[in-house]
Design goal:
This protein is an alpha+beta fold. The chain has helices at 58-61, 69-78, 90-103, 106-122, 127-148, 152-173, 183-194, and strands at residues 13-16, 20-32, 35-44, 49-54, 64-65. A 5-stranded antiparallel sheet has the order 4-3-2-1-5. Strand 1 (13-16) and strand 2 (20-32) form a beta hairpin. Helix 2 (69-78) crosses helix 5 (127-148). The two termini are 14 Å apart. The model is unreliable at 167-189, 198-204 and 207-212 (pLDDT under 50).
Length: 212
């Protein structure tokens, strides 16, 4: 079997959308089901965890290089832009944002953060959404910090400065929004459905990385 050539190099910083910003620490071959495959060994600082991903599955998993300065600045700027109101049904909102996380572009991540930040100003987020928001925010801060050569704390302040003026405007309108977000009654049921979703905070470790 012909092995796919690696797109990334050792020591290169990358984004693994469902897990965070990481660094390629090694590229190595392993035999799996009588086939020799190339794997990226990636260290994820946010979770202090090392994962192995087959080179041929990177596009499927959304693994990509850190964006350019221009793309990072554009994602930062969009945080202060107006956007269409999102559904008050938290299950639909969660699934839509989870799909964006799987796509994993920097603008997708920024969209999640902007959406859930403003929603949290109207009503407290359910546990799953809060976890998604925290993961997306950390990913966005870390990637833009690398792209712009700033610290995550500096990026956190810049994001907040862009979100807050728009948040004030939206909070003034919140009383006119119909809310059917009764997550207290059905969150447990939905969390059971989502328990097997490995796309948030549940990455493969080295022993699991051999799965095709």
């Amino acid at each position: 079997m012909t092995k796919e050539e690696p797109e990334f190099k050792v020591n290169q910083k990358i984004v693994y959308p469902s897990q965070g910003v990481g660094k390629i620490v090694e590229i190595k071959e392993r035999v799996f089901k009588e086939q020799t495959l190339l794997y990226y060994v990636i260290y994820l600082d946010v979770s202090d965890m090392t994962v192995m991903i087959p080179v041929e599955r990177c596009k499927e998993l959304g693994v990509r290089a850190i964006v350019s300065k221009e793309e990072a600045q554009a994602a930062l700027d969009m945080m202060g832009q107006e956007f269409e109101p999102v559904t008050s049904d938290w299950k639909q909102r969660y699934q839509a944002n989870l799909d964006l996380l799987k796509k994993g572009t920097v603008s997708d991540i920024a969209t999640i953060v902007r959406c859930l930040y403003h929603r949290s100003k109207i009503k407290e987020l359910p546990i799953l959404e809060r976890k998604l928001y925290d993961s997306a925010t950390k990913l966005l801060e870390d990637e833009i910090a690398l792209a712009l050569d700033l610290t995550p704390k500096e990026i956190e302040a810049m994001i907040h400065a862009r979100l807050e003026p728009l948040g004030i405007i939206r909070n003034e309108k919140a009383s006119s929004i119909t809310d059917d977000d009764d997550f207290d009654e059905d969150a447990d049921e939905f969390m059971d459905d989502a328990a097997d979703d490995k796309d948030i905070d549940d990455g493969d470790d080295e022993d699991e990385g051999d799965e095709d």
